[in-house]
């Protein structure tokens, strides 16, 4: 419930900041028409623009897919953690030792998920109503705002249900989360293909994220797109209850993958951690690489659209960008930077979870120093971030090269490394949070990412508010490959993160272990 409230407010703030910023940046209809002409090139990232020359259409386009994706990630982590995760920890067994059947316990858990989702929907919708009412020309309307709220939380609704079903099928929480994440990754990939060109629009009807996009809640709404969403939720809930009723505690339809080898390569806590996170790491890197490849693949087509837009050409000129293709990729790598920062926040929350769940005790009772464990875990996260960034650069080059975009490999390699800077900062903040306020680690890490994203959005669209933009970690990376990275400024951000990590490590070495 706490996280539902937090994300409900964040989603609402993203909506209202988008409305206000767009209305200030483009106050006249003529300016909005010119701006809307440049948006088609970004459809592969956040969907096809629909009536983006209006405040309602632009807001719906700008936030719907992003919020649906964030909500889906929260949902799959929440549902698998509070169902299979609780079972793995043995707390589900304690619950069922009382006068509670497996079916009733599962029903009540699903009702709790529904209650949290309802709170998220209410907060998001209320802020959307306020944004529409307080902004001249927005014209959201009460009905449109309610449908908008439903669209924004639909991703969370579906993946609460999908995660719940995966929890009944899987042998561990990690396996359940991996299955649900694979479904989300596949859905996002299909949506990217559908939005790559208008001729493939029908493909959106075979992916859950495409259904959300097709709702068009604020301009020419299509409420019937909610039907397949409701069908997925209902189907997964029914299947979850049927399996839960007949499944023995601890049993699963899928087996946990058996270990290969004799374990001789497990030389310490770092190699153990590397072995435990390798599945998640492969999933993240593969997803980032797939996104980057398709972004590179459409670079040439996107550049031709941007080159025909005087408004976008003017923006690129102010930034010192000469080639539209590199300008497009510069904005695309900001998305990669956001994904890497979210990944880093999730990994830092996972490190804290090892302590909170008591698993760290099993290492510390052996001759393992706290700092050795922490340094190994943080080093793995940093390595994963850098590998993800460099992989994004390489995959983008492969995609762009197939279309003969003519962008040198070294530029994209450099852009991928540049995109890792915000994530490295988040890792440093996460170490400090683990040391000082361990129970708030997840909130601090994800909050840093969410605030920076909102501040960068508002600061980019609202003139004269540079201090807001400067407070975002995403502001301090250049639009590489369009602009050469400023490694001096990037080094300052990294050094602040390193300083936070060093201070956190010193405090962590001396404090008591804190459980959940």
How is the topology of this model organized?
Layout: H1 2-25, H2 29-36, H3 43-46, H4 55-89, H5 91-96, H6 102-134, H7 142-169, H8 173-195, H9 208-214, H10 226-246, H11 269-297, H12 299-307, H13 310-318, H14 324-356, H15 361-364, H16 370-402, H17 409-418, H18 421-436, H19 441-461, H20 466-470, H21 487-510
3D structure, described in words:
There is one protein chain. The chain is mainly α. It has 2 domains: 1-257, no CATH class; 267-516, no CATH class. 74% of the residues lie in helices and 0% in strands. It contains 21 helices and no strands. Helix 14 packs antiparallel against helix 19. The longest helix has 35 residues, at 55-89. The protein is globular, with a radius of gyration of 23 Å. The two termini are 16 Å apart. The mean pLDDT is 84.
Query: What's the domain count?
Result: 2
Q: Give the overall pLDDT as a whole number.
A: 84
Which regions have little confidence, pLDDT < 50, spanning 5+ residues? none
Task: Assign the structural class, choosing from mainly alpha, mainly beta, alpha/beta, alpha+beta, or little secondary structure.
Answer: mainly alpha
Work out the helix count.
Answer: 21
């Amino acid at each position: 419930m706490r996280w539902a409230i937090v994300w409900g407010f964040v989603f609402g703030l993203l909506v209202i900041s988008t409305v206000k910023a767009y209305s200030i940046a483009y106050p006249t209809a003529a300016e909005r028409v010119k701006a809307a002409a440049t948006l088609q090139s970004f459809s592969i990232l956040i969907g096809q623009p629909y009536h983006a020359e209006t405040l309602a259409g632009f807001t719906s386009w700008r936030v719907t897919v992003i919020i649906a994706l964030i909500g889906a990630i929260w949902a799959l982590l929440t549902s698998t953690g509070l169902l299979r995760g609780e079972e793995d920890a043995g707390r589900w067994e304690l619950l069922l030792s009382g006068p509670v059947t497996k079916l009733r316990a599962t029903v009540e858990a699903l009702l709790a998920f529904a209650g949290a989702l309802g709170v998220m929907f209410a907060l998001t919708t209320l802020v959307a109503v306020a944004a529409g009412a307080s902004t001249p020309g927005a014209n959201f309307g009460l009905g449109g705002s309610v449908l908008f709220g439903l669209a924004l939380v639909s991703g969370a609704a579906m993946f609460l249900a999908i995660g719940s079903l995966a929890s009944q099928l899987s042998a561990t929480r990690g396996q359940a989360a991996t299955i649900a994440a694979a479904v989300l990754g596949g859905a996002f990939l299909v949506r990217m293909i559908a939005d790559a060109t208008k001729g493939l629009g029908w493909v959106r009807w075979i992916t859950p994220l495409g259904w959300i996009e097709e709702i068009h809640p604020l301009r020419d709404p299509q409420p019937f797109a909610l039907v397949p969403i409701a069908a997925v939720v209902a189907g997964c809930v029914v299947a979850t209850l049927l399996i839960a009723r007949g499944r023995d505690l601890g049993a699963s339809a899928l087996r946990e993958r058996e270990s290969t080898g004799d374990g001789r390569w497990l030389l310490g806590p770092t190699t153990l951690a590397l072995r435990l996170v390798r599945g998640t790491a492969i999933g993240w890197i593969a997803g980032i690489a797939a996104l980057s490849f398709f972004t590179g693949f459409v670079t040439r087509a996107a550049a031709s659209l941007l080159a025909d837009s005087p408004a976008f050409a003017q923006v690129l000129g102010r930034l010192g960008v000469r080639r539209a293709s590199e300008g497009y990729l510069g904005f695309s790598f900001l998305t990669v930077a956001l994904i890497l920062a979210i990944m880093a926040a999730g990994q830092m929350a996972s490190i804290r979870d090892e302590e909170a769940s008591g698993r760290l005790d099993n290492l510390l009772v052996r001759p393992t120093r706290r700092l050795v464990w922490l340094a190994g875990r943080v080093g793995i996260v940093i390595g994963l971030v850098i590998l993800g960034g460099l992989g994004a650069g390489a995959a983008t080059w492969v995609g762009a090269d197939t279309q003969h975009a003519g962008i040198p490999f070294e530029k994209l390699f450099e852009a991928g490394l540049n995109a890792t800077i915000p994530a490295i900062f988040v890792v440093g903040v996460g170490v400090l949070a683990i040391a000082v306020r361990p129970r708030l680690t997840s909130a601090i890490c994800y909050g840093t990412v969410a605030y920076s994203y909102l501040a960068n959005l508002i600061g980019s669209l609202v003139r004269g508010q540079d201090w807001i933009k400067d407070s975002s970690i995403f502001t301090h990376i250049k639009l590489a490959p369009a602009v050469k990275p400023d490694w001096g400024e990037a080094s300052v951000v990294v050094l602040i993160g390193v300083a936070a990590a060093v201070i956190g490590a010193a405090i962590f070495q001396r404090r008591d272990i804190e459980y959940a």
